[in-house]
Specification:
- By secondary structure, the chain is of the alpha/beta class.
- It is built from 13 helices and eight strands.
- Strands 1-2-4-3-5-6-7-8 form an eight-stranded mixed beta sheet, sandwiched between helices.
- This is Maspardin.
- It is found in: Cytoplasm.
């Protein structure tokens, strides 16, 4: 089934994707005492930029799901790092390992674009920095959530590590299989994520599901003052309107980017719209200590996008 899906996926056969695979190196990094805790990444753009955009994938996807963001934003001089997670079993361990990764890469601060689980992990990392110097300069959350109880899997968390990969894949895809689309781009994005899902090992799947479903929630008061953009899609996707409303309540001052359609994976199916919203979010930081781009090479990377500097963004930039 996975082979058939891959064969019918236009994205996997596209020159754009094949060009990405040939042009951007796939690196593996171990930053913990345990050599089995391995991060993998695509790091593109000017390496001297110390406040890049870091992309964190959903439970079902690998770093490759952001290849369209990597290609587009680096063409404007941005540094973009798309990550795959190590196998860890608690949010605390994930946050500690992510902090060590930032140290290893000599990144002073980062802007984080998190999709679904990636967005939740980004929030938890920013939350644990409360009361000390922030490593997170800003957040962009796409189809994400603020509490794990929505998945109704908290009682299964302790058994994920025992289950075979085929059962874990079925668990991940449970909410997605019921969603069909006549939109070719959305259908293709689902095929791409299905291919991505089948590339994950049993341990990777079990770890991600454990992080996704263990009983926890975001404490929004610990993220006050952090510039946030919320990207949401209003057609069929795995998140309910109640989940979106809970996220809005946590971030009343956030910029909201609403897409009429795009499914669960708009960074693939509606890449041009998502890329535009990322540019709008990042523009206030250009030509500042928190710039995610090489301003000397391309100081007007987003000159085509007119948006005022938000007070939160200005505060974050001046606090560095």
């Amino acid at each position: 089934a996975a082979a058939a899906a891959a064969a019918s996926c236009g994205i996997l056969r596209s020159e754009e994707y094949l060009g990405f695979r040939s042009a951007v190196a796939h690196r593996r990094v171990v930053v913990d005492d345990d050599d089995s805790l391995e991060w993998s990444m695509y790091d593109a753009g000017p390496r001297h930029v110390r406040c890049p955009l870091v992309c964190l994938p959903p439970c079902s996807g690998t770093a490759e799901v952001f290849f369209r963001q990597v290609l587009y934003l680096t063409s404007f001089g941005f540094r973009v790092i798309a990550l795959d997670y190590p196998v860890v079993w608690s949010l605390g361990d994930w946050c500690l390992s992510f902090q060590r990764l930032l140290d290893h890469l000599s990144l002073a601060r980062v802007h984080i674009f998190g999709a679904s689980l990636g967005g939740f992990l980004a929030q938890k990392f920013a939350e644990q920095e409360h009361g000390r110097a922030r490593r997170v300069a800003s957040l962009v959350l796409c189809n994400s959530f603020v509490e794990t109880s929505i998945f109704q899997q908290t009682n299964s968390v302790k058994s994920f590590w025992l289950l075979p990969a085929v059962v874990l894949r079925s668990t991940v895809m449970h909410n997605l299989d019921s969603i069909s689309s006549r939109d070719r781009e959305i259908a293709d994005s689902m095929l791409f994520l299905n291919h991505s899902l089948h590339s994950l090992s049993q341990q990777q799947l079990a770890s991600r599901l454990t992080l996704n479903c263990q009983d926890d929630y975001v404490e929004p008061h610990k993220l006050q003052g952090l510039p946030v953009t919320l990207i949401d899609v209003f057609d069929d996707n795995a998140l309910t309107s109640r989940v979106r409303e809970e996220t809005y309540k946590c971030y009343p001052d956030a910029k909201r980017a609403h897409l009429k359609s795009g499914g669960n994976f708009p960074y693939l199916s509606r890449a041009s719209e998502v890329n535009l919203h990322l540019q709008i979010h990042l523009q206030p930081f250009l030509n500042s200590p928190l710039s995610p781009a090489d301003d000397s090479v391309n100081p007007t990377a987003c000159a085509c996008v007119e948006t005022p500097v938000t007070s939160a963004a200005a505060t974050a930039a001046s606090a560095h």
